[in-house]
Specification:
This protein has about 325 residues and is an alpha+beta fold. About 35% of the residues lie in helices and about 20% in strands. A hairpin with a 2-residue loop joins strand 8 (about 210-215) and strand 9 (about 220-225). The N and C termini lie far apart (about 45 Å).
Length: about 325
Amino acid sequence: QKNRVYTSYREMILIEKSLPENERMDFVSIVTPNFLHFDPCKLALENGFHVMCEKPVAFNLDEAKALETIVLKSNLVFALTHNYTSYPMVKEAKSIIKEGKLGKIFKVIAEYQQGWLSENIESSGQKQALWRTDKSKAGISCCVADIGTHAENLTEYVTGLKIKELCADITSFVEGRELEDDANMLVRFDNGAKGAIIVSQVASGEENELKLRVFGEKGNLEWLQSDPNNLILKLADTPKQVLRPGNKYLNAETQLYTRLPAGHPEGYIESLANLYKNFGKEILKFKSGKIVNYEELEFPSISDGVRGMRFIDAVIHSGKNNSCWVII
């Protein structure tokens, strides 16, 4: 409809608010660069619209904390697009750990390797690189904010643990780039477990290699985003198992996120669909009069966004101060 096309987010939100409730939009998706997250989110929430926001949640930690206050005050549904948590086999990994099949978790290793910034493509005007490497638009971080937060969020989501402190080594390998394009972090978790998060956007030859390995006293599991239908489970004194979506042996919760019959590949688009499905369910509950319980949402929300910003701050602070240990 031509009368529903707007010249700015401000115009859209204010005009949509004036429409009858059964005609106006239900929510706003924020898919802009980091420096354009806070204002649209704030305006949407203050005018009664639910929000789905790209990560990281804001330009800096102060904005993230201010946005958290706004979200909690509004009692509206807020989601963050850490969609990797919505893969069926990630749900299964979480269930396996929650059920205690790995025992106490000792070690966690997450890797996210990309190679697309191995050259100074921002100097040629490549739009995706241009804003991510510009501190006036991305904030204090490039690589850690862009993909490191995915690794951090996936790690905490699957294990149920929280990163307590970390030390980081950050580097800008490409000449002339002011923000880091590579980071290596040692992390300590709140249960005493230890691990590493390794992220890079100058890992030449890699496309989008996100990998998670979790080691416990009874065994370990491994998941790879480029092969998302296979969850590898290795229990002590037991043959290696490869668990796959669409099969009845999976946890009942996992089966709710399986969108295709067994043997059909489920990937990135389906994970986003699962995220939006859960988001939509919460909006319907809201419309029926239910108060939003932010502690029980089955998708990343504002608290995850604030943790992500604290993680970015801690990594950059550590990296700029001789890899000192920083408490999150």
